[in-house]
Amino acid sequence: QVQLVESGGGLVQPGGSHGLSCAASGFTLDSYAIGWFRQAPGKEREGVSCISSSDGTTYYAASVKGRFTISRDNAKNTVYLQMNSLKPEDTAVYYCAAASNYCSGRPDEYRYWGQGTQVTVSS
Predict the structure, then answer these.
(1) In 66, 92, 94, 95, which residue has its Cα 20 to 30 A from 114's Cα atom?
(2) Overall average pLDDT of the 74-95 stretch
(3) Residue 1 above 90 pLDDT?
(4) Distance (Å, rounded) from C-alpha 40 to C-alpha 42?
(5) How many beta carbons lie within 10 A of that of residue 10, not counting itself?
């Protein structure tokens, strides 16, 4: 059974750091481009970051570039999102997703999705 499971959500103070994990089962993560998306209440789902399957090239949305880092541990079949200098506007449900072809900012390009994990940035 193909499954993606996110973990690590929680409440973080502004300026703080937090890490998310995305563990895969039923398929090998490094055969897919893995993206992180987020969706805040009343807003559309937006692409945050992606790591390609071929050479591990990483991509970031302008809003998180320099603050977030995506990485992949093939041995653990897990992708991570390290978030630093968090802002209240980073508050959202964060999802990881797997695309068969290449990194894309379009959610409809992704084949498998996790259930999401809530990140709240607030004092």
Answers:
(1) 66
(2) 97
(3) no
(4) 6
(5) 11
pLDDT tens readout for residues 17-74: 999 999 999 999 889 999 999 999 999 999 999 999 988 999 999 999 999 999 999 9
SS3 labels along the chain: CCEEEEECCEEECCCCCEEEEEEEECCCHHHCEEEEEEECCCCCCEEEEEECCCCCCEEECCCCCCCEEEEEEHHHCEEEEEECCCCHHHCEEEEEEEECCCCCCCHHHCCEECCCEEEEECC
Question: Sign of dihedral through CA atoms 107, 110, 116, 120?
Answer: negative
Beta bridge partners of 82: 19, 69
| Diameter of the chain measured on Cα atoms | 40
pLDDT, the chain, mean: 95
13-47: burial string, b at 16+ Cβ within 10 Å, e else: eeeeebebbbbbeebebbebbbbbbbeeeeeebeb
Q: Are 107 and 118 in contact (CB under 8 A)?
A: no
